[in-house]
Amino acid sequence: MHDIQNEHDQRGVEVDEVGIAGLRYPVEFNDGATSQHGIADFSITVRLQAERRGTHMSRMVALVHDRLRTFDPRQLPEILKSGAHELDAPSISVDASLSFTTSAPAPTSGLESISVHDLAISGRWADGLCEVTTSVTTEVTSLCPCSKSISDYGAHNQRSRVTLAVTGSGDDVYPLPAHQAVEILRACGSAPVVPLVKRSDERTLTMQAYDHPVFVEDMAREVALACRERGLTHEVRVRNLESIHSHDAIALVIGRGDALDARPAR
């Protein structure tokens, strides 16, 4: 059959990104430390040459089916390179979003429950180079230092959504496994968020939060420092789902991998 996509286009306009979005597909996420099954949402795009009328989007679905159902971010350089060759494209990008879980034992009773975290992985191959950004989002409890300072008793607290995005390239496209990112994020708040708690656990978590008040600025800085100590190129976003305000509080820190200045001397 005639391949219309391969027809010559005379308008001389390169298309920066063209492809598919919203492809939901079953995957096994396996990064060497975490192995879980789930449904991922994929987007795949390529840069289309000016002389080419269209790209072959069916090949993008085939790439997911053949190469990405076992989704290992460490394999993305090879997968993206072969995908660019198959699509005859100068660059290719793959974005995948899914959820993964970690154990969340209650602090006093020890009862087991499961925390669910959001994971987004974006890989781009161009000019023989590959770059991968891994983003993990989880929730912690934060208690306001100002509220604690000015109140006769108690202090307002809330859940906070914290996102850590780490970018790798070259031979190290996946420098921080997803479960390690969760550990860093959980440590930045006043207390963890635990799905299943009894009264003894609630008492422990409430007092832990009261003893460790943090602003959004504190949480963003703590995560950034943990990334600096590991030499990671990173972006940290924090959003407090404020409990007594009609607005949320947010903070952002962006750091390069060569910013190795860790905690200052005290």
From TrEMBL:
Q: What Pfam families does the entry give?
A: GCHY-1
Q: Which InterPro entries match?
A: GTP_cyclohydrolase_FolE2/MptA
Keyword Hydrolase carried by entry: yes
Molecular function as annotated in GO:
GTP cyclohydrolase I activity
Domain of life the protein comes from: Bacteria
Q: Which UniProt keywords apply?
A: Hydrolase
Q: What is this protein called?
A: GTP cyclohydrolase
What is the scientific name of the source organism?
Actinosynnema pretiosum
